[in-house]
Amino acid sequence: MTSPYWLEEPRETFPQRRVKHAEVAVVGGGITGCSCALSLARGGASVRLFEARQIAEGASGRNGGFALRGGAAGYPDAKEWLGADQAREYWAWTEGYLDRIEELAGDAFRRTGSLRLANDASEREELRAEVDALLADGFAAEWVDEPGGVLAGRFPAAILHPPDGVLQPARLVRRVAALAAEAGAEIREQERVETVTDIDADVVIVATDGYPSGLLGPIEGLIVPTRAQMLATAPLPEVLFERPHYGRHGFDYWHQRADGTLLVGGFRDVSMESEFTADEAVTEPIQRALERFVSELFGHEPEIVNRWAGIFGLVTDLMPVVGRVPGEDRLWVAGGYSGHGMVLGFACGDLVAEAVRGRPAPLLGLFRPERLLL
Ligand SMILES: Cc1cc2nc3c(=O)[nH]c(=O)nc-3n(C[C@H](O)[C@H](O)[C@H](O)COP(=O)(O)OP(=O)(O)OC[C@H]3O[C@@H](n4cnc5c(N)ncnc54)[C@H](O)[C@@H]3O)c2cc1C
């Protein structure tokens, strides 16, 4: 009952490599670590990846499966905080990585678009500002006034984001790991790294997002472990939500698989304090809120087949944390996506790989770890 829906799918096998000396060690076998290992191995570096459990068993195999462009904050906020040019560059950069995901994911990704819903009049105003800002900067977006069908009367407006899509996230991450192994990366599962000094490598990249690794020195704990919970129903007769749907500032999110299975997550705000934890347990109040929401959407109580929780890393300014760890010579970090990490994790894994190889990494300045210490 408490097993993540995505992880029940059998794993595809991947080649077992051994490298003599690792120039780069990557800690964490989620989307960030696997993307980083792929980029490094394809770039000719010798790389060894350590995962405490199995590939994709952290948040990358426990999430909603939404592949969304942009950052965790809305586009107008990003423009205000970063300035218009950098916000535009940031959003366009993530769209480029959505394209790259589509190229390598095969049937682990479908470009369905996503529907960001307004829950009330004030959220409607926010979405109006968002769609105007996106369109003014040349991004594809469509305003939906009073969504119809099963959404009619519940949500006053929505934005359709055409570039977005839906993932089988565990399948994607395992595929990225397989590609990394094919390119020569050594992947060590069931191997927890206890201290950085234990690792024989020139550079160590910690890619553990919200899971406390104990490896991050001065910034340990500043990417705050935050729990999110989900459930999956037995297949429902009608597929009403093929694309990702999300509302209440992302607090609620849901979509259906092709067989009718409904996956719903969120309602963290029912019990906000208890969800600042790294414990992957499900809890009664949040699971009840998710069930109530499903009953309201469908008018009856479907059978619940899976319930699960995962941990993501929250950062107060909602920006990723990528770069060399302050005061450390060979230690780097990539994480802190504030619940928006599948496309960003894929992108930031590549970004940190480029940076440690000394190649141009233009957006690195936005994600500097030093800012966490200010
Ligand atoms: C319920 C839920 C729903 C979400 N929904 C979405 C969504 O729909 N779309 C989206 O974009 N994002 C979503 N997110 C966020 C997204 O899943 C994460 O941001 C993303 O998966 C982070 O990937 P990662 O590779 O950086 O970290 P993870 O996938 O968490 O991987 C980190 C890995 O590090 C390992 N590890 C930790 N410490 C050590 C150590 N010392 N040694 C070795 N290994 C270690 C862990 O076992 C873990 O497997 C959601 C998150 C949750 C929890």
Summarize the structure.
It is built from 7 helices and 17 strands.
Q: What's the pLDDT, averaged over the residues?
A: 96
The CATH class of the largest domain is Alpha Beta
CATH architecture of the largest domain: 3-Layer(bba) Sandwich
Low-confidence runs: none
Can you give keywords for this protein?
374 residues, alpha/beta, FAD/NAD(P)-binding domain, D-Amino Acid Oxidase, Chain A, domain 2, 3 domains, binds flavin-adenine dinucleotide
Q: What does this protein structure show overall?
A:
This protein has 374 residues and is of the alpha/beta class. The chain folds into three domains: 1-6 and 18-109 and 165-221 and 317-374, FAD/NAD(P)-binding domain (3-Layer(bba) Sandwich), CATH 3.50.50; 114-162, no CATH class; 224-314, D-Amino Acid Oxidase, Chain A, domain 2. The chain contains seven helices and 17 strands. An eight-stranded mixed β-sheet has the order 6-7-5-12-13-14-11-15. Strands 9-2-1-10-17-16 form a six-stranded mixed β-sheet, with helices on one face. A hairpin with a 4-residue loop joins strand 12 (245-247) and strand 13. Helix 1 packs parallel to helix 7 and helix 3 crosses helix 7. The radius of gyration is 20 Å and the shape is globular. The N and C termini lie far apart (43 Å).
